[in-house]
Amino acid sequence: MAGAACAFAQVAQAADAPAGSASEAAASAMLDDFAGNAGRLRVFLQAMPKGGDLHNHLGGSVYAEDFLKVAAAKGMCADAGITRIVPGPCPAQLQIGPMAQKDPFTYAKLVDAISTRGFQKGIGPVLVSGHSQFFSSFGKFGPAADGEDARWLADAYASAGRNNLVYLELMHNPDTLTGFMVAASDAPLGEAELAAAYKRDLPEVEALLAATSAEVTREEQAARQRLACGTAQADPGCDVAVRYIFSGMRGLPPQVVWRSLLAGFALAHRDPRFVGVNIVMPEDDPVALRDYDLHMAMFRFLEGKYPGVKVTMHAGELALGLVPPRDLESHIGRAVASGARRIGHGVDIAYETAAPETLARMAREGIGVEINLTSNAVILGVEGGVHPLHLYRAMGVPVMLSTDDEGVLRSDMTNEHVRAVQQQGLHYADLKDMARNSLEYAFMPGASLWADRRYAAVVPPCAGGLSSSACKAFLSGSEKARLQAKLEINFDRFEHSLDRFKNGQGAAGD
Questions:
Q1: Every domain of the chain and the residues it spans
Q2: By percentage, how much of the chain surpasses pLDDT 70?
Q3: DSSP labels, 387-432
Q4: Over the stretch 258-297, which tens digit does the pLDDT of each residue have?
Q5: DSSP 8-class letter at 497
Q6: Cβ neighbours of residue 169 under 8 Å, at least 6 residues apart?
Q7: Domain 49-60+147-426: which topology?
Q8: For the whole prediction, is pTM greater than 0.85?
Q9: Is the pLDDT of residue 140 over 70?
């Protein structure tokens, strides 16, 4: 969210070079030493710079308790079974406000019902699948979510700042375009009709774009006000650069999916705050499975109309047993072939018929994978050695950690790093590489700071240091490079402040 001038000033005042090998080695040794101590590891990783979060749904980033605060303020209630939020009026014992104060056990049951809290290890019984609990949660807190996007934006910015991110790509569909999407015809739609549908629907969506951008501006202004941005009490989230991804809705009828994707491409073409388009909803939904080829055709058609709009796709968010084996054979490969520059989840890659070829292409073309460890464990039951993280890395495919739906999943970016260390055996250099990947493969505009994807050397203008006149001129023309330079500065500062994590030096001590 920080402006270009502010970001440039931070870079210009920084040291001339990234952290040296000695300080990085010390940080690496310290992380390895802390890996078996959950508390010390969390403190260390909380402070560690983390780059960007490229896979974060605004609607799922909110914790149940925050939805319940809003619901209480609006006089909303729990239903009779304590399974969801419903509008009032209702009996006193079901009113959320009094319940939170006087009946903590029933309140706790409601928190469990509208999140995956009962699916964290050691907390409560598992009575339904994590997959069903996760996807059903959104409808259960929906009434409290309406009209509160500015509040949720503020919470998302604040979480990013609290977890030492410099950049956030947030999946967010503004309300102004919702009516256009849901007003779609229920008539069939095939690939041959896409050109006619584009000619028919484009004028209507373009007429809504100015109002959509104005809506987002109001939301951002309100969010920044909530965080006291521009004041001495500004939340750290005020300094996080934020861009948005618009999401198509794969589980709905074809005309609705088409309109959602058209709206996303048209908005991203018009408003630079929207840097890409995705496709969401459960990939195992019968409609999503039936229409997968049609959805890929929609992407290819719209990419031809809007070649400057970047695409990331949820693909391969499937597991053996969730769907028949035949449904695991090709989704990631087809997404890559249909223009995806990043893949969200990518969990079932080992089951794809052409996995070696797809992995080779992803490595060759720099098509990254947004890795969501908590999400994959809770929703798909895929974790530890079964997770394909190491497969991707071994094949040279760039990967980066992300949160997915941190509120519903009861996680945050630091927790994703803890999982990466304790469950995937990653080390400091691995995490640092993934943080750099998160900016290198982000969709924000501008040239990279790095001369190649190995991060071995910066571009020639910055070879003399980040504060050299040539580097300043280069950074002034690239938002991506400015954020990458900011991350390197943050790493340098972190690696030169390790004494505070040692015994007797602060919170990290035993």
A1: 1-48+427-503, 49-60+147-426, 64-145
A2: 89
A3: STHHHHHHTT--EEE--BSHHHHT--HHHHHHHHHHTT---HHHHH
A4: 999 999 999 999 999 999 999 999 999 999 999 999 999 9
A5: -
A6: 52, 53, 54, 55, 56, 242, 243, 244, 245, 275, 276, 442, 443, 444
A7: TIM Barrel (3.20.20)
A8: yes
A9: no
